[in-house]
Design a protein that fits this description.
The chain has a five-stranded antiparallel beta sheet. It has a two-stranded antiparallel ribbon with strand order 4-5. The radius of gyration is 15 Å and the shape is globular. β6 and β7 form a beta hairpin. It is built from four helices and seven strands. With 170 residues, the protein is α+β, with helices and mostly antiparallel strands. The longest helix is centred in the N-terminal third of the chain and has 16 residues. Helices cover 27% and strands 26% of the residues. The structure holds zinc ion (ZN). Zinc ion binds next to α3.
Length: 170
C-alpha cells in the first residue's frame, strides 16, 4: 500500500474527499485492515486512515508504542470532554511537518471491529488525539486545517500546492 501525500495533486484530491461507510465487513475489509496496519508500522506512523492509502472508506488503524493495533470501522465520536490537550502532530500524508494542535482531551468513540462487532472505547491522552486526527481524515480534514491561515499556508507552500484550490472540508 502506497501512502498518499499532499505533494501530489491527484493524491491530495483524494485526501480532501469524504470517505463512505463500509457496508459489509467481509474478507476484503479484513485484508485492507491488515495491509493498513502493515503500512502504518512500516511508515513509523501511529495512525492511518483509508483515504491515506487511496481508499475512500470509513476505516482507520492506530498503534501506539507497544500496544496492539486498533482498527476502527465506521467510527463515530459520541462524546468529547470540554477539557483540551495539546500534542505535536505530524501526518504520513504531510511528511516532515509538525505542529501543536489543541483537541478535546478525552473522548468516547463507537466503531465496529473486523469481526463485525460494535464496540465503544474511552480514549484519553495521545490516543484521544490520534483518534480525532484519523477521524478527520475520513472527512477530508487534515491536521493543518486546525492551524491559523498563516501557519497552514506556510506548510502547504513547502509542497508546492495551491492552498486556495484545496481548502479542505469546513
Ligand atoms: Zn494524518
Amino acid at each position: 500500500m502506497d501512502i498518499y501525500t499532499i505533494g501530489f495533486e491527484e493524491q491530495l484530491k483524494v485526501l480532501r474527499r469524504v470517505a463512505a461507510p463500509i457496508k459489509d465487513i467481509n474478507e476484503d475489509v479484513i485484508r485492507i485492515a491488515e495491509n493498513m496496519v502493515e503500512a502504518m508500522v512500516k511508515g513509523n506512523g501511529i495512525g492511518l486512515a483509508g483515504p491515506q492509502v487511496g481508499l475512500l472508506q470509513r476505516i482507520f488503524t492506530v498503534k501506539i508504542a507497544d500496544g496492539d493495533p486498533l482498527i476502527f470501522i465506521n467510527p463515530e465520536i459520541i462524546a468529547t470532554s470540554p477539557e483540551l490537550s495539546i500534542y505535536e502532530e505530524g501526518c504520513l500524508s504531510i511528511p516532515g511537518q509538525y505542529a501543536d494542535i489543541e483537541r478535546p482531551a478525552v473522548l468516547q468513540i463507537q466503531a465496529w471491529n473486523t469481526r463485525g462487532r460494535p464496540f465503544t472505547l474511552e480514549a484519553s491522552g495521545l490516543l484521544s488525539t490520534v483518534i480525532q486526527h484519523e477521524l478527520d481524515h475520513l472527512n477530508g480534514v487534515l491536521f493543518i486545517d486546525h492551524l491559523s491561515e498563516r501557519k497552514r499556508k506556510k506548510i502547504l507552500g513547502k509542497f508546492d500546492v495551491d492552498p486556495d484550490r484545496y481548502p479542505g472540508v469546513e
